[in-house]
Structure to design on (357 residues):
């Protein structure tokens, strides 16, 4: 080997070593990227269904291990914020409400929607955002007992608040985004048009809620808890996730309406500077693919999910239960998420003060 060839070989080794060191130094991510992606989501049925229809296939097709962390949203964001401060970020992919994508934008990785082939080819229209993508879509729906109302149940939030026409104990959420879900329903019940509801007139909403509060028999804390309340007869109607309304209705004992259901969207996002940012982005791009898996997943969780081919694969008899079916989607009430994000602390303080007084 000549001196020149030795020097050339040495240069290549040095350059390769430098590139490897640089790759490892960028957020300390490159080595970890080949190993796993850490996904934070709610536990129970949602986690099991994601595992069956997405996590396992992602592992098989990419060789990237999915480490699932079951956690509720308030704890997830508290840990994410603490991790940003300490430099020890606990998750790659997180679950986010629409206001979360705005409120926590500073700690979320930007999403290049146009540069992700799976998103471009398979995601629902307008379902990828600068800081996340839609995961699941449903609504906070009015659900009632057919035994309590054999001649027909309530069809609007005005009916929910009408205790003379529809007597009996009610149930409302004290979890999730209840600080704006419930006041919004109160304003709709008081005659405010959906497109005029924001900014929320909280004084008017809580005046309406004051009159109903004695009829609230239970404040549910989870979807499973809500179903137990209805099945146990502790309430004759409630506001609840459509993912719980659907199985209740399919049992034959309960029914629900999409009319004035408050659109409830769950999103995926990737934490900025997380251990496996690129693996997180890969997972988001993978998630939106394969319509048949989305249909099967949606049947289990009773939420629609982010795939444009899935709606055409839904049997006609199932369409009544699908929020994204056009006749149902058009009835959902869409909130002003920018206003909610800007006023979230005040909304929560007002809710807690009212609930505990």
């Amino acid at each position: 080997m000549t001196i020149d060839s030795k020097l050339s070989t040495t240069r290549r080794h040095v350059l390769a070593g430098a590139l490897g060191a640089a790759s490892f130094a960028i957020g300390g991510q490159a080595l970890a990227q080949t190993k796993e992606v850490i996904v934070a989501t709610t536990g129970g049925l949602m986690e099991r269904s994601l595992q069956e229809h997405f996590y396992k296939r992602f592992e098989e097709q990419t060789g990237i291990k999915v480490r699932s962390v079951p956690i509720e949203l308030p704890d997830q964001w508290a840990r994410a914020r603490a991790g940003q401060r300490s430099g020890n970020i606990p998750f790659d992919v997180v679950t986010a409400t629409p206001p979360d994508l705005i409120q926590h934008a500073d700690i979320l990785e930007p999403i290049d929607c146009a540069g992700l082939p799976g998103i471009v080819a398979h995601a629902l229209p307008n379902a990828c955002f600068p800081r996340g993508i839609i995961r699941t879509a449903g609504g906070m729906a009015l659900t009632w007992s057919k035994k309590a109302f054999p001649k027909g149940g309530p069809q609007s939030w005005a009916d929910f608040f009408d205790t003379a026409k529809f007597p009996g104990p009610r149930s409302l959420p004290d979890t999730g985004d209840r600080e704006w879900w419930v006041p919004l329903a109160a304003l709709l019940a008081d005659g405010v048009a959906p497109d005029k509801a924001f900014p929320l007139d909280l004084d008017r909403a809580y005046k309406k809620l004051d009159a109903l509060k004695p009829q609230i028999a239970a404040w549910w804390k989870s979807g499973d808890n809500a179903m137990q309340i209805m099945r146990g007869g502790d309430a004759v109607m409630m506001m609840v996730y459509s993912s719980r309304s659907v199985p209740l209705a399919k049992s034959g004992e309960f029914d629900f309406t999409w009319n004035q259901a408050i659109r409830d969207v769950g999103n995926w996002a990737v934490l900025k500077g997380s251990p496996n940012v690129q693996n997180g982005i890969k997972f988001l791009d993978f998630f939106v693919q394969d319509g048949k898996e989305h249909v099967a997943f949606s049947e289990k969780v009773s939420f629609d999910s982010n795939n444009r081919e899935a709606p055409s694969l839904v049997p006609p008899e199932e369409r009544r239960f699908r929020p994204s079916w056009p006749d149902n989607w058009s009835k959902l009430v869409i909130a002003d998420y920018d206003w909610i994000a800007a006023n979230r602390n005040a909304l929560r303080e007002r809710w807690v003060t009212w609930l505990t007084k």
Q: What stands out?
A: The domain at 138-264+336-356 is CATH 3.40.190.10 (D-Maltodextrin-Binding Protein; domain 2). The two ends are 87 Å apart (CA to CA).
